[in-house]
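re: ur question from earlier - yeah i can do the single chain one, its not a big deal. heres the input i used so u can compare w yours
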Amino acid sequence: MQPNFDLIIKSNILTMANQQPRTQAVGVKNGKIAMVGSLDELAKAKGNDTQVLDLIDKTVLPGFIDSHMHPVLTGMVACRGGSVCSAHY
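and the output i got, formated as tokens:
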């Protein structure tokens, strides 16, 4: 048996997963995505305290995290006005 979700998000959800590129709902438990699937599947784990957020005609995308940086520019900015840097730009 699945634990009750804290939150169910109903929407057009893009998962970016080949086996299930789109789905109808996301179940959240303790601040983490616990399940994605159809509304019927997630309804089985809906409890009395489960909040349901219906985004109607909105689309949910996975979080995109840009982890790159520009090291030369970062170094130049860090050296501005400091006496530690000897690099000239």
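The domain at 5-60 is CATH 2.30.40.10 (Urease, subunit C; domain 1). not sure if urs matches, ping me
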